[in-house]
Amino acid sequence: MEQTFIMIKPDGVQRGLVGEIIARFEKKGFTLKGLKLVSVERSFAEKHYADLSAKPFFNGLVEYIISGPVIAMVWEGKKVVLTGRKIIGATNPADSAPGTIRGDFAIDIGRNVIHGSDSVESARKEIALWFPEGVVGWQTSLQ
Ligand code: CMP
Q1: Complex ipTM, two decimals?
Q2: 125 backbone φψ class: left, alpha, beta (φ>0; ψ -120 to 50)
Q3: Is the CB of 96 under 6 A from ligand 1?
Q4: Which residues form the Nucleoside diphosphate kinase-like domain (predicted)?
Q5: pTM confidence score
Q6: Is 140 exposed, middle or buried (0-12, 13-18, 19+ CB in 10 A)?
Q7: Which of 40, 86, 112, 118 is the best mutation target for the ligand 1 pocket, counting ligand atoms within 8 Å of the beta carbon and taking the most?
């Protein structure tokens, strides 16, 4: 079954949007397979966004992601990568439709509340990076 990596960024956590965002994925019918509240080191944020390292906004993006704890999640379901991106809305909140997470809760591309994997391949890499301990189904249970 397809899985995607979803991160609620520091602004989303600080603004108290965690419950609202989780509810949208749950109500759509997706299954939560992994979740943790974590702070990330600069080097880890740089690894997550390595593909963007040449962009002029890269340093600001890394500063933003390490500015407070984030919620890292794995969601599972049919076409969850593409559908997850639709639930999230366009990267620039100026272009994201009302009814999407960014369309409803963001106005600034530099503070756009949430990240979702952009392909099945990115999802596989991001889940491996953020959940090296595994997610429900392929880790051992607490004993
Ligand atoms: P995300 O979905 O996490 O993927 C890459 C991130 O880079 C994006 O959301 C934004 O947070 C950020 N980003 C993309 N374009 C810009 C930009 N022009 N200025 C600032 N941040 C950007």
Answers
A1: 0.95
A2: alpha
A3: no
A4: 1-137
A5: 0.95
A6: exposed
A7: 112
Is residue 79 within 8 Å of residue 2, measured between CB atoms? yes
Catalytic site includes residue 48: no
Tell me, what amino acid is at 137? G
Active site residue: 83, 115, 116, 127, which one? Answer: 115
| CB of 110 shorter than 6 A to ligand 1 | yes
pLDDT in tens, 55-87: 999 999 999 999 999 999 999 999 999 999 999
- Can you tell me which residue has the tokens 């960024």? 9
* Token output for 100: 């999407």
> Contact at 8 Å (CB) between 117 and 104?
no
